Amino acid sequence: MDGYFSSQIGLVPSYRLSVILLGASSLLIGLFTNIFPVVFSAISFGSSYIFMTGVLIIWGIHIFQTNPSFGLGLPFLLLALGQVFGSLIGGGVAGVVGYKAMFILFAMISFIALIFKPVK
């Protein structure tokens, strides 16, 4: 699906769409505590995270064409490191400002990723 979608609209729009969906799902859970927005946030976050993983793998393989295994492994490594350190930082921030503020803050920070553009 990622390869098909990215080939139809392009790598940069696919990347930006996944960033927007990830940030919006975090913002949604920070703003609302009702069951429907929370469930929609979880579904949106999970599916857009998987989609972004595919986009980053395609991007990595595209960048490292002479060594595609490196292009495949590097995004996975960086995603794993982001999960480890993001969880540590998120827990610390939530302990200081609370969970709602943490989700809103992290959503706003995630939109910074929109300034980065995959190499064509």
From TrEMBL:
Subcellular location: Cell membrane
Residues in Major facilitator superfamily (MFS) profile domain copies: 1-120
Record key words, sorted: Membrane, Transmembrane, Transmembrane helix, Transport
Keyword Disulfide bond: no
Matching InterPro entries: MFS_dom (IPR020846), MFS_trans_sf (IPR036259)
Topology class, membrane: Multi-pass membrane protein
Sequence intervals crossing the membrane: 12-32, 38-59, 71-91, 97-116
PROSITE patterns: MFS
Key word S-adenosyl-L-methionine present: no
Name of protein: Major facilitator superfamily (MFS) profile domain-containing protein
